[in-house]
Amino acid sequence: MGQAALKKRLDIAHHKFNDVESNYFRSKAGVSGEDFVDQQLARYEHPEPHFIIHDLHLKASSFFQIDNLFVTQSFALIIEVKNIKHTVDLMQNPHFMKQTSPEGKVVIMDSPEEQLDKNIIWLKDWLLRRNWVLPVVGVIVFTNSDSHIIPNNCKYDIVRPRYLTKKIRKMVTIKEVLSQEQLIRLGEELLINHRDYEQKALHAKYNLTSTDIITGVECPVCFEIGMKWSKRKWVCSNNHISTNAHLQTLEDYFYIFGPEINNTEFRRFFHINSKDVAARMLKKLNLKEIGKGRWRRYRKPLSKQ
Ligand SMILES: [Zn+2]
C-alpha cells in the first residue's frame, strides 16, 4: 500500500509526516468499510438481471476509479463508500467534508459528493463514446456506525449499509433501456477495459522532493532501511541476509515516485555504487525497457486482471 511505503520513508520530524500518517490510517479504514458493502451486495438478490463490479478502473478523459458499480437494464448505480466516524458535515460551496471529533478536533477531507459528481460524468462519457445509452446515478454509503452525518444540501442519497439494498430494490423500474444481451455485453466491455489504476505518484500529491524521502533497501526481518549489497546479497547492520529485499523497495519507489526508474535513480535509491551492478539488477526485474543507452528507463508493467 502506497501510504505505508511513504510513511516509513519520511522522517517523523518532516512537516508532511502528520498528513501522510493520518491519510495512511484513513485509507486503512476505507478498505474495511468497502468490504462491508461488498458483503451486503453479495447477499442481496435483485429481482432483475444485473451485475456488480467492485473496484473498477477505467479511462475516459482521465483515469477514474469506481468502488462499486451496480448495473441493471435500466440504470447504472455508482456506490461511493465512506468509513468515517464522529460528526461528519458535507459542506458545499466549496465542497469539502468536515469531520469533528467529540474533543472538537476538526479534519478536512475531500467531498464524496464531488467525487461522485466526477465519477458520474466520467462514466457517462465512457458509455457515450461507446454508444451506450444508460442513465447513471449515484449513492453515498457511510459505513461507520459511530458517525453522525449532516448532509446539508448534498444532492445524493446518503444511506447506511443495511439500507443500501433497500434503496436499490426501490429503484426497480419498468423502463428498460438495455436488452438482456446488451446488459451482458456491457458487463464484458467494462471488464475488458478495466485497467490497473495509474496512481498519481505520492511525491507529487504531497509536494515532496526526492531529498525528503529516506533511501535504501529495507530489511525484511528488522525493517531497518539501508541494507548493503555485498557478495550478491543484501545485508543489514544486524546481519540479516536477503537476496530479494530490493523487490519490496522497488515497489515503495514506484508508489512514491511513479512507475519508472533509470540507472542513476536506482543507484541513488538502492545505495549501489556500480553502474553495471545496477544495470544487471534492473535487467532481472522484468520491467519494460524504454529508450536506449543513457536515456534508458525501466517501467513497471501494468498488472493484468
Ligand atoms: Zn535486519
3D structure, described in words:
- There is one protein chain.
- It is built from 9 helices and 15 strands.
- The strands form 4 sheets. Strands 1-2-3-7-9 form a 5-stranded mixed beta sheet, with helices on both faces.
- Strand 10 and strand 11 form a beta hairpin.
- The mean pLDDT is 88.
- Helix 8 (263-270) packs across helix 9.
- The two termini are 18 Å apart.
- It folds into 2 domains: 2-193, no CATH class; 215-299, no CATH class.
- The longest helix is centred in the first third of the chain and has 27 residues, at 17-43.
- It is globular and about 70 Å long.
- It has helices at residues 2-8, 17-43, 112-129, 161-170, 180-193, 202-205, 246-257, 263-270, 275-283; strands at residues 50-59, 63-72, 76-82, 86-91, 96-100, 106-109, 136-142, 147-150, 157-159, 228-230, 233-235, 241-242, 260-261, 288-290, 297-299.
- It has 305 residues and is of the alpha+beta class.
- Bound molecules: zinc ion.
- Zinc ion binds next to loops.
Blueprint (SSEs and pairs):
Layout: H1 2-8, H2 17-43, E1 50-59, E2 63-72, E3 76-82, E4 86-91, E5 96-100, E6 106-109, H3 112-129, E7 136-142, E8 147-150, E9 157-159, H4 161-170, H5 180-193, H6 202-205, E10 228-230, E11 233-235, E12 241-242, H7 246-257, E13 260-261, H8 263-270, H9 275-283, E14 288-290, E15 297-299
Parallel strand pairs: 3-7, 4-8, 7-9
Antiparallel strand pairs: 1-2, 2-3, 4-5, 5-6, 10-11, 11-12, 13-15, 14-15
Bound molecules: zinc ion.
